[in-house]
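Dear Dr. H.,

I hope your travels went smoothly. While you were away I took the liberty of generating a structure for the chain from your last submission, since the lab meeting agenda had it listed for discussion. I wanted you to have the full record in hand beforehand rather than looking at slides cold. The sequence, exactly as received, is reproduced here:
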Amino acid sequence: MPAISTPDLTDAHPEARAIELQFASFGAIARFHGPAVTIKCHEDNSLVKQCVAEPGAGRVIVVDGGGSLRRALLGDMLAEQAAANGWAGLVINGAVRDVDEIAATSIGVQALGRCALKTEKLGMGQRDVVVSFGGVSIAPGDYIYADNNAVIVSKSPLL
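The corresponding predicted structure, in token form, is as follows:
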């Protein structure tokens, strides 16, 4: 995977949209990119669990958790499964847990924060829908580029 720089990409491609949230990097891979698979859920990571079990093929899971920091949508076991199944990373509008273990996992993870509490598994949420947060709408198949500067979205590949 070629090294990316979101500032350089936005300079070269002004059509790229930056998500206007202050994400933090939690995974061992600081720079990642790929086509988006979208999930919309609130304090229930049932769909995240299902998604990471599938072949990732270098894609990025974008989870709109409504910005909640009350329950973690990703923990160490799901991060490890995502890495093992070939996902490039996850962008989470919400919280993660097991941050030390995720930091040692070969996956990109950008999230708003951390929380020790797990979610309930109620099977709630939607997959492969347009999600909107941080001033940007993200459709399944949009291209995600993430590094320690930002997370940006494009309708077409930038690399």
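Two observations you may find useful: Residues 76-84 form the longest helix (9 residues). Residues 20 and 134 are 4 Å apart (CA to CA).

With kind regards,
E. W.
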